[in-house]
Amino acid sequence: MRIVHGSLSMDVPDEWVDQSQIAFAEPIDRSIALEFARAAAQSGAARNLQAPAEHKPRTNFVLSTKSFFGEGVDPIEFATRELQAMLSQVQTGDRSEMTIQKLAGHDAAVMEIEFGYEEMNLRQLHGLCLIGDRVLHFCGTATPGSFEKMRPEFLRVMASIEWVSDNP
């Protein structure tokens, strides 16, 4: 099978199982990166042109897929149970009610959670759906202060995903 993601393209044996994970993060604060590079140059250290760690987590979203080996399962029931089970393993604060939204053109179970991580709070929007023999999981993460602004963008990206497969 031919896999294409952005500028990356590769041939993978058809019988291999796709367990892809794609992550995107908001742009880095270039002023921090340039300040970091200047300080390194002034100290005589080798220039590391990668982005330094920032003082706050960057808003991001991750899309992952894995195999599903069940038959005769209602996709929404499966997605709802799977998402609830997955999130029950995380110590969370606030949780939204489960809703149904579109993910890759399919109905998906969607829930928001807030939780503590390394002395800060984060808020996530999770969307999970079953497409044929694949489970598709979307997770958007932001700080609670920026989450309200990002929610529509997360939902827009989630709805824009297209699933192209011989086995929908």
Task: Give a written overview of the molecule.
The protein has three helices and eight strands; from the N terminus they run βββαβαββββα. The two termini are 16 Å apart. The strands form two sheets. The chain has a six-stranded antiparallel sheet with strand order 3-4-8-7-6-5. The model has no long low-confidence stretch (mean pLDDT 82). By secondary structure, it is α+β, with helices and mostly antiparallel strands.
In short:
With 168 residues, this protein is an alpha+beta fold.
The radius of gyration computed from the alpha-carbon positions, rounded to a whole number of angstroms, is: 19 Å
Instruction: Provide the residue-averaged pLDDT.
Output: 82
Class computed from helices, strands and strand pairing: alpha+beta
Distance between the termini: 16 Å
Query: Main β-sheet, in a few words?
Result: 6 strands, antiparallel
User: Biggest sheet, strands in spatial order?
Assistant: 3-4-8-7-6-5
Helix/strand order:
EEEHEHEEEEH
Helix fraction bin: 25-40%
Just give the CATH class: Alpha Beta
CATH topology: Protein Transport Mog1p, Chain A
Shape: globular
Sheet-strand content, in percent, reads 35-45%
Are there runs of 5+ residues with pLDDT below 50, and where?
none
